[in-house]
Every structure is written in C-alpha cells, then in structure tokens.
Amino acid sequence: MRLLCFSDIHGNTEAVQLLIKDVRARRAHYDAAIIAGDLTNFSVTHDLPESQRSLDNVLWMLTDEFDNVRYVYGNRDFDGRGKKRRSLTHYEGLLLQPGKKYYLGPKMPITTSQELADRNTILVQHSNVVSEDSYRRRSVVCRKALLHITGHTHTGVLSGNYLNTGFIYRDDSNGAEPMMGGYFDVHITKRRIKTAFHPIGPIRRRTLNCSGFNGFMYSPHGYAFPVQLAVR
Question: In this model, does residue 31 exceed pLDDT 70?
C-alpha cells in the first residue's frame, strides 16, 4: 500500500496546488492520502465563512486528485473553547473520528485513538505533544502502532515507526517566516515501511539529534525539533 502523508496546510490552496503538481510530475499513484490536521487557519482568523470555504476548497482539490482522502482536524480547525467552540462542517473525504477503526484496505486499519493502535494499525493524530510541567513538553511516540503519523510542530521527523509530517505551508503565526514545506511518500508491504520526503519549499533533511532516537528531521536550515521525543 502506498500512502501520501502530510499535514498543516493552514488553508493555503497554492501549497495544495504545488503538492498536486509535484505528484503529477513524479507520476506517483497512491492508495490513500492521509492529512494529520490543520487544514485551515480558523483559530487564527476567527472567520467562520472564510475558513469553511478554505476547508471546502482544500478537500475538494485533494479528493478530486487522490479520491481516497482521510484526515483529522488540528487545533487550528476549531475556534473557541467549551460552549463557545465553533466547528467546521466537512463535505469531502473522510474525517476520522476518535474511538473508531477505519480501513484503508482489507488489511490496513487506521485510527486516531492510541488505545486502538496495534502492530497492524496506523495511528493518526494532529498532535502528540504533552506538557510535563510549565517548561517541558514532549512528543510521545506510540511504539505499538504500525505507523504513528502526526503534524503540529512544523518540523518533520522520521524515527522508527514515528512520522511527523512537518507542514505543507507554514504561515507567519508566532513570528515564523512563511514558507512552503513538503510531503511524505509511505510504502507499506507486509508491515515493512519505506518512506521518502518530497520538498515543495526550502526544507532539508538532517540527522535527528534526540537521545534514544535514531532517524532524520526535515526543516528549514538552522531549525531544530522544538520538543523532545518520548515513548509510551
């Protein structure tokens, strides 16, 4: 099974067009596309109609091109909290809901819930970051999953069964420099996973510098992974 994996679009349709153009140029074909959240910038703009149009456009482009599109919402795909929380409505693709298992194929389950993950199941979350105290945060990797896919931190990481997809488009939130990112090609055969990164922006691969973890990180030059990795 071949999967197209990415996250953090932040409503940028130009970035989606570049992704599609790059996939076409490589003549690549996928069984499914998996998006690990932040399709829109709703929590930043607070504009419900604009964010809904953004979500509709992004998902229409992706489902029209790749057909089988599965995704989770990220922190930017909601606005407000508690009773004041506002949500977007999805019309295209399949929004993965907590507490359920879905199937990408007859023998390829996928879930958003860690308790349902196992050695045959793909776990998809927008964020796996937990706060240990006021100063320390860790990205917790689910080792029991076949593949653990996340986004959110805007820095790609590949280590063992863990894949943080980085971003397709990073905006200027929190003082960052806006730029295009990249996406991952994941090929799974008999629980063996091969992964390739394809940049559409100035993203480079470097050796991951994190105690206890071997692998690579994908980020603009000079940037490091913002949180430490841990296993649960």
Answer: yes
How many CB atoms sit inside 10 A of residue 58's CB? 25
- Summarised one tens digit per residue, pLDDT across range 145-189 is 999 999 999 999 999 999 999 999 999 887 888 999 999 999 999
Looking at per-residue confidence, does 223 or 140 come out higher? 140
The pTM of the whole model exceeds 0.85: yes
- The two tokens of residue 179 are 């730029």
Under 8 Å between Cβ of 92 and 44: no
Cα 151 off chain centre by: 4
Report the number of distinct structural domains present in the chain.
1
Domain that holds residue 203: 2-231
Q: What is the CATH number of the domain that holds 47?
A: 3.60.21.10
The CA distance from 165 to 167, in Å, is 6
pLDDT above 90 as % of the chain: 80
DSSP 65-91: HHS-EEEE--GGGEES-GGG-EE----
Residue located via tokens 């991951």: 208
Residues whose CB falls within 8 Å of the CB of residue 111, separated by 6 or more in sequence, listed in order: 96, 100, 101, 102, 117, 121, 122, 123, 124
Q: Which of 30, 74, 66, 191 is nearest to 122 (CA)?
A: 191
